[in-house]
Amino acid sequence: MADTSSDAPGEGLGAKFLDQVPIEITVSVGKARPLLRDLLQIDRGGVLPLDRRIDDPVELYIGDRLIARGELQEVEGAQAGQIAVRLTEIIDTVSGA
Asked: In what residue span(s) does the Flagellar motor switch protein FliN-like C-terminal domain sit (predicted)?
């Protein structure tokens, strides 16, 4: 007879296993649409303008699914100089599915 005592979501071996699975989040800061000839002329140190301003929100994706928006910020303390994202909006992915 199979043990079905922990079939509820968030319980049992499955949930413990899923807690250990790493995921990759992509942060999108903007897009560029240069002409190919202009892109081929860019040298090292060249600047490629994006469609967003420095203080505009960034978007966080898992795969191609938007999961949140946030603001770029610099980490302080021991990791000074590293960038991070402060979340400002979590996208409701459950009701939109």
From this structure: 18-92
Q: Which of 60, 63, 66 is nearest to 85 (CA)?
A: 60
Q: What is the pTM of this model?
A: 0.71
The closest alpha carbon to 48, from 63, 33, 68, belongs to 33
Q: What is the pLDDT of residues 42-64, one digit of tens each?
A: 999 999 999 999 999 999 999 99
What are the chain's domains? 20-90 (2.30.330.10)
- Is residue 30 within 8 A of residue 49, CB to CB? The reply is no
Supply 87's token pair: 């979340």
